[in-house]
Amino acid sequence: MRLLTGVGVGPGDPELVTVKAVRVLREADVVFVPVLADGPEGPGRAEATVRAHVDGDTVRAVPFALSDRGGRSAERLDAWDEAARAVVSAFEEGASRIAFATIGDPNIYSTFSYLAQTVRTLMPSVDVATVPGITAMQDLASRSGTVLAEGREVLALFPMTAGLDAYEQALEAFDTVVAYKGGRFLPEMLRAVDKTGRTAETVFGAALGLPEEVVGPVADLAPETVDGAPYLSTVITTARRRERGGAL
Amino acid sequence: MRLLTGVGVGPGDPELVTVKAVRVLREADVVFVPVLADGPEGPGRAEATVRAHVDGDTVRAVPFALSDRGGRSAERLDAWDEAARAVVSAFEEGASRIAFATIGDPNIYSTFSYLAQTVRTLMPSVDVATVPGITAMQDLASRSGTVLAEGREVLALFPMTAGLDAYEQALEAFDTVVAYKGGRFLPEMLRAVDKTGRTAETVFGAALGLPEEVVGPVADLAPETVDGAPYLSTVITTARRRERGGAL
Questions:
Q1: Taking CA atoms, what residue in B is nearest to A151?
Q2: How far is B228 from chain A (nearest CA, A)?
Q3: Which residues pair with A235 in a beta bridge?
Q4: Which of B113, B134, B246 sits opposite A129 (nearest CB)?
Q5: Most CB within 10 Å of its CB: which of A127, A146, A215, B3?
Q6: Residue B210: its pLDDT value, please?
Q7: Distance of alpha carbon B232 from alpha carbon B160, whole angstroms
Q8: A94 near A86, Cβ under 8 Å?
Q9: Neighbours of A46 (CB within 10 A)
Q10: What's the CA gap between B162 and B159, in Å, rounded?
Q11: To probe the interface with B, which of A15, A115, A142, A243 has the most B CB atoms within 10 Å?
Q12: Interface ipTM
């Protein structure tokens, strides 16, 4: 048996990983954790969460590019290929169960799906499974006291790579709009939020669960935060502000 | 301190609860679990997951109505009020930390937001927090080998209480459409999926993680499953079928 499991390790807080994820990580012969080739953002969190629950020599770092930054560039394809070859080598060296840790959920805007495709192309006998993980959207909702959706409300989950025009249209049409990976577009995003009259119902989150965490209403953001927001920023706009006595 | 925490306990599999949820449930003076007034669906799962991780006398069942079935009917308002009064009584009896277990995530189509509002109306000194949980959408994606979203794809999360016409429009407009709580509308939903040419990219799930679980492509569903699907059914339509060697 050769089983590759994409394990969602949540948004960064080592406690926001499932009991099943911990078990699968501990049972794996090898645990790969992506380490970002072009900066310290994001995937470093996967390693921190893995090391909080798995001790020992099974953990191996692989260089990896963030999903969606700049499309399927040659550099990113190279990084996926390198990671896939590392997984295949580990199977060839005798591993039967390999886990690949991903921040968030392995089926939602994760690089795991690309990796799994490449591994199966190189080694078709590999079975692929996933373990779901808590997403940044859910963590930000919890930390900001925001109800994401109630009753008949429809929620749109939106990667900013889909474009600013489409984002503004989503704000016009949807009860709840969650925008991912919007860091460098944040000034333009906040103008779209303002234009559609939804500033009071919009919260921002970055570096969730880390010492440098920023969570709060977009109306309260410092200018330097708006201009320097990290790639993995999340913006949630809800149907109306629903104060719950949360952390805001 | 009086703290009420809505704890997401995931979709049914007791392992799909976070490490943080387990800690908060164990540290609580009282853990309320909703027990459905009008049938065995759904909330029974919350109790099973709680009892898998918390032993002892802190667990109390409260009758509760499923969110969204029939709107804010008088009967459902009564059930929320009764649950809220039980929480307030427990605080008055000396509890300082109360957990309320909800299936899925407490900020996504959960009855917890209504409960928390009512508790704070009755007892304004109560602080409210939430712990996120794995949603049925994520569990079904994992069990069916379905990638929910990649790259620039936009995902719409859609409660069938929003209506069949709106569902068909969503299928026309979105890369990924996830429909919740569609059980009794399933025959009409499948016609809308067929009409928009997306049958091959659509999977169905019900009773996830339970012995009676049904997971698979909608094209393979037995007629009796289509006609008798439970309320808490989930239907996922993706941009294209992405075979990953999963369970399908």
A1: B68
A2: 23
A3: A179, A204
A4: B246
A5: A146
A6: 86
A7: 11
A8: no
A9: 28
A10: 6
A11: A142
A12: 0.92
pLDDT in tens, A3-22: 999 999 999 999 999 999 99
Classify residue B53 as left (phi > 0), alpha (psi -120 to 50) or beta.
alpha
Task: Quote the pLDDT of residue A244.
Answer: 47
- Contact check, Cβ <8 Å, B147/A107: yes
Give the gap in angstroms from C-alpha B226 to the nearest C-alpha of chain A.
23
Tell me what pLDDT residue A67 has: 47
Q: Which residues contact B144 (CB under 8 A, 6 or more apart)?
A: B203, B205, B215, B216, B236, B246, B247, B248
The reply to whether residue B141 touches residue A120, judged by beta carbons under 8 angstroms, is no
> What mean pLDDT, rounded, does chain A reach?
88
- In this predicted model, what pLDDT tens digit does every residue of B71-108 receive, in sequence order? 556 666 677 788 999 999 999 999 999 999 999 999 99
**Both tokens of residue B73?**
């009917």
Q: What is the pLDDT of residues B135-172, one digit of tens each?
A: 999 999 999 999 999 989 999 998 998 899 999 999 99
SS3 breakdown of chain B: % helix, strand, coil, rounded to 5?
40, 25, 40
CB contact under 8 A, B149 and A159: yes
Name the minimum distance, in Å, from the CA of A15 to any CA of chain B: 5
A111, two tokens? 């690089």
Determine the 3-state secondary structure of A52 from DSSP.
helix
Q: Which amino acid is at A90?
A: A
Share of chain A above pLDDT 70, in %: 88
CA distance A210 to A232: 13
For residue A242, the chain B residues in CB contact (below 8 A) are 113
Ranked by mean pLDDT, the top range of A30-39, A44-53, B20-29, B149-158 is B20-29
pLDDT at A238: 95
For testing the chain A interface, which of B26, B67, B244, B248 should be mutated: the one with the most A CBs within 10 Å? B244
Cβ–Cβ gap B155/A154 under 8 Å: no
Contacts of B48 in chain A (CB under 8 A): none
Query: CA of A93, closest CA in chain B: separation in Å?
Result: 22
Tens-digit pLDDT profile for residues A194-208: 999 999 999 999 999
Interface contact flag, B129 A246, Cβ < 8 Å: yes
Contact A105, A18 (CB under 8 A): no
Neighbour count for residue B221 (Cβ, 10 Å): 17
- The C-alpha of B5 sits at a distance from chain A's nearest C-alpha, in angstroms, of 10
